[in-house]
Design brief:
InterPro entries: G1P_thy_trans_s, NTP_transferase_dom, Nucleotide-diphossugar_trans. The protein contains eight helices and 13 strands. It is α/β, with parallel strands linked by helices and 244 residues long. The chain has a single domain, classed as Spore Coat Polysaccharide Biosynthesis Protein SpsA, Chain A (Alpha-Beta Complex). It has a seven-stranded mixed β-sheet with strand order 5-4-1-6-11-8-12. It is globular and about 45 Å long. 45% of the residues are buried. The model has no long low-confidence stretch (mean pLDDT 94).
Length: 244
């Protein structure tokens, strides 16, 4: 399984902090934000990783990360997203890198307390389709929200004003190679972006999407409030714990 870290975008919700740098290079406790999603993939047993970045500070990722030696990697791949076309548009750029293999995708501002090795192994056994990770949150309207029928996800609604469950779809996804064909069929949403929720709903329609609950705490760091929370959580407990 290969890994893709999506670290593009302009980080406008974090202005003025992002006037001078990519948001994924901002500090979370004692290290840059981008370290956390890369370590999450490494802890899941993934060693072949691509970083999708963008904006005016893309070269800073190369200066910071190099070939990924700090994470025990022999090589780290990079590609560049022009503009802000959305998560699915950024993922589209990894098609050549994926080369038909299953992938684990993580958003560059997502930070977890534990690990996702159990979900990665479950998806390796699953072989086809997609897997998402859910987490109960206080503010599901900020995220993609699953509509559940018993143990089955029947639909995902993007940032609904009236969420139909208390769960958020976290920024960790597992996909087979069909994901790139699905992305090619997408139309831009009202935000002018290719939405990852539409990708997940396509897998739901095909009957090949599964889900697991994410262990431990989870947060994004895309707003001032969630950036502050991420610093608090990592300072209190640490992140990317391998045990459990």
């Amino acid at each position: 399984m290969k890994g893709v870290v999506l670290a593009g975008g302009l980080g406008t919700r974090l202005l003025p902090l992002t006037k001078v740098t990519n948001k994924h290079l901002l500090p979370i406790y004692d290290r840059p934000m981008i370290y956390y999603p890369i370590q999450a993939l490494v802890n899941a047993g993934i060693r072949d990783i691509m970083l999708v970045t963008g904006g005016n500070n893309a070269g800073d990722f190369l200066k910071l990360l190099g070939n990924g030696k700090e994470f025990g990697l022999r090589h780290l791949n990079y590609t560049y997203q022009e503009g802000e076309g959305g998560i699915a548009d950024a993922l589209r750029l990894a098609e050549h890198f994926a080369d038909g293999e299953p992938i684990c995708v993580i958003l560059g501002d997502n930070i977890i307390e534990g690990h996702v090795a159990y979900a990665a192994e479950a998806f390796r056994q699953q072989k086809i389709g997609a897997k998402i990770l859910l987490k109960e949150v206080k503010d599901p309207q900020r995220f993609g929200v699953p509509v559940l029928d018993g143990e089955r996800v029947v639909k995902i609604e993007e940032k609904p004003a009236h969420p139909r469950s208390a769960y958020a779809v976290t920024g960790l996804y597992f996909y087979d190679a069909q994901v790139f064909d699905i992305i090619k069929t997408l139309k831009p949403s009202g935000r002018g972006e290719l939405e990852i929720t539409d990708v997940n709903n396509a897998y739901i329609a095909a009957g090949t999407l599964t889900w697991d609950l994410l262990d431990g705490w989870w947060t994004d760091a895309g707003t001032i409030e969630s950036l502050h929370l991420a610093n608090e959580l990592v300072g209190r407990t640490g992140a990317n714990k391998r045990e459990g």
